[in-house]
Specification:
Blueprint lengths: L2 H17 L5 H6 L15 H6 L2 H16 L8 H11 L5 E5 L7 H4 L7 E5 L7 H13 L4 E7 L3 H8 L6 H6 L2 H6 L11 H22 L1 H8 L4 E7 L6 E3 L1
Parallel strand pairs: 1-2, 1-3, 3-4
Antiparallel strand pairs: 4-5
This protein binds zinc ion.
Zinc ion binds next to α8.
Length: about 250
């Protein structure tokens, strides 16, 4: 391919991007995205991310979930987003700690794009020293301003904990969820067959995970005290698609 041809291809690529619904994800919701002057898909620049408060970022995540559950996700050009963040660096606004459950894909259910958030996924959305280290990197080094711990309904890890499941390395992981079972005040059937109890434990597990993050990481708790970081909990309803923040 000669240089001239390559330039033509790049120009065509840019025109295609200009025509695409490039104003996506967090930026699209802010109205800061695609203007027609910028031949890129929307992805957060450092200045745009730094200009947002934690509360504003949380509000955008809520709006993204509203779009998702109404079936009105923005049109993403993921490849264009990928190219932008690979060329300019990543400036994610938040870090999400969520379950590995295939029915709870955080970026999709909040209509987020490439480069918008860090995402740690582990069964039962529990934390440990390695997760804390990842979050400290995401917030203190890379500048994320929100930690969202996301539990979900009908969580198999929570149900397994309640049922006393044991399997290889899973046994040790479920032991980290066990305190939430004990701490859940619930009158009635406290078995894994009762979805209402499983969901109540999942919610308590989110609360205890947040407490564990705050108590376990002076780096993060100091950022919270300084107003530079907010840690919030949420529960995702895998049937309705609604994400409830608390
Ligand atoms: Zn789960």
């Amino acid at each position: 391919m000669c240089d001239h041809h390559e330039k033509e291809v790049n120009a065509a690529d840019r025109r295609a991007l200009l025509k695409s619904a490039g104003a996506v994800s967090l930026l699209g919701a802010l109205g800061l995205g695609f203007t027609g002057k910028v031949a890129h898909a929307a992805a957060l620049t450092r200045a745009q991310r730094d200009a947002m408060t934690p509360d504003e970022i949380i509000a955008l995540m809520k709006k993204g979930n509203e779009r998702f559950r109404k079936g009105k996700n923005q049109t993403h050009n993921y490849l264009a987003e990928q190219r932008k963040v690979s060329a300019s660096g990543q400036y994610p606004a938040a870090v999400i700690l969520s379950c590995i459950d295939s029915r709870a894909p955080a970026e999709i259910l909040m209509d987020l794009g490439v480069g918008d958030v860090f995402n740690a996924r582990i069964a039962g959305n529990i934390s440990n020293d390695d997760i804390l280290g990842s979050m400290e990197f995401a917030c203190k080094v890379a500048g994320a301003k929100v930690i969202l711990v996301m539990g979900h309904t009908k969580c198999g890890a929570v149900a397994g904990t309640i049922a006393g499941a044991e399997l290889g390395h899973l046994t040790g992981l479920l032991a980290k969820i066990r305190p939430a079972v004990d701490a859940t005040a619930y009158q009635g059937d406290r078995s894994a067959k009762n979805n209402a109890f499983v969901d109540a434990v999942a919610r308590k597990n989110v609360e205890l995970t947040i407490a564990g993050i705050t108590n376990g990481s002076p780096v993060l708790s100091e950022m919270v005290s300084a107003g530079k970081l907010k840690i919030v909990g949420s529960m995702y309803d895998i049937e309705t698609g609604a994400l409830e923040f608390f």
